[in-house]
Please model this.
Amino acid sequence: MILAESGHAARLFESLVELSPAGMFAIDCDYRYLLWNPAMETISGLRAEQVLGRTAFEVFPSLHESGADAGIREALSGRSALLTTHVPFLRSPGDGHYETRYFPLKSAAGEVLGAVAVLAETSEHEAAERRISETESRFKNMADASPVLLWMSRSDGLCTFFNQTWLDFTGRSMDEEWGVGWAEGVHFEDFQRCMDTYLEAFNQRRLFEMEYRLRRKDGEFRWILDRGTPRYLPDGTFAGYIGSCVDITEHKRLEAELRNAVRARDEFISVASHELRTPIAALQLQLEVLQRTLERSEEAPDLAKLSQRAGKALDKTLYLGNMVNVLLDASRLSENRLQLDFEDVELAVVLREVVEHLREPAQQAGSLLELALEAEPVGRWDRFRIAQVVTNLLENALKYGGGKPVRVLCSERSGRARIDVIDQGPGVPPECRPALFTRFARIATPRAYGGFGLGLWIAREIVKAHGGQIDLEGATDSGAHFFVELPALAR
Model:
């Protein structure tokens, strides 16, 4: 600052100093106060007459110790200085925050005559900065505690924030994800669609939602549902986007399972309608023939033919009954309503009864049923359900391995009863094995076989309910070898 010599300029300067909201004071080279404006009186609590004419060290003895005289010394040396201080000019250190700027006071010739200081309060600015910092800290804490993956981008589209949940999910650092680094984790098949969706929404400043696969830190790609929302500054300026991501992998899996279940249901309904229609039509035909025979017979009817027709009708009725029972079992198992009546059961007795019951069907199929008892274990089982499991395995063996021997073995190993059913049919193709014990499983063969595809699934559920195991021992083209293991009683 240069001290003007004209009286008009001096008066103008004096008016500005008097009206200034900033504290101002001037000091000569001997540190004697020449100026102390009203704002300075308010800031310090000292009136001008208490300060003017006195040295700075007289008014503020701690001036040198506090280091506040450094700015004055800089100005007296001809250089400007900026200091942030709470003392010695304030009423108390807690009254506020001030920045003090020091300027050399020079004559027109450039001679340093003293120093001028201007105090500007920074309390509101610092408070605003603290509020912003606290808001940002609260947002970060909330974001990091959120169970969803959060991200934020600025107005140029580059992402500048990812919450801790995101970083923990990807196993990457903020620097690695910053900008477009996050896109490195997007599955290559989803990348272009993901980028197109984001950029299109970004350019139109609209909400967007997209699904893509994102690589987790363990290397697995997980399906993510990403929702982005444009954000704006208080003045309405577009500031970028904020987005949230949710792992929907399980939802996608359940959705796929539901679609498969609906498809299996439709296939089952088609199969069931065909399987039930065929025996019903045959039964109806046999009953119509019986009725016509009785109506047209003027003499005593041929009892042998009537008996034969009635037998065929009865067979179809029994077949329908079995199919209805299968459907009922499937329904009970689906609703966990299958009841088991446990009792002490001799497995050898059950196997003999089942084999004997299937002798005639085996003869019709041209197969020889062989039963070998290496042991005669006893267990606490449901007699009817165990017989049902063995019957299912033998009927399948006769169905697919008809014309060749079918062997049934009974043994006991390490407290486990074991049943083996072995046929010499076409076997089970390797590609069919994973779905063999699922609902509605039907093995594609050159010859069409009837059934709902529920038998093995029901058998597996029954065996599991007994604490046992059922599986396929071999899956070759030389036949199928099924086995059942059940917990046996110690004897």
